[in-house]
Amino acid sequence: MITENERVVDKDHLKRIMQEYRRRGFKTAIDDFGAGYSGLNLLAEFQPDIIKLDMELVRDIGSNPVRQAIVQGILGVCKALSIEVIAEGVETESEFLTLQAMGVYYFQGYFFAKPAFESLPEVNWPRIEALS
Question: Which residue, among 58, 10, 8, has the nearest Cα to 30 in the 3D structure?
Answer without folding.
Answer: 8
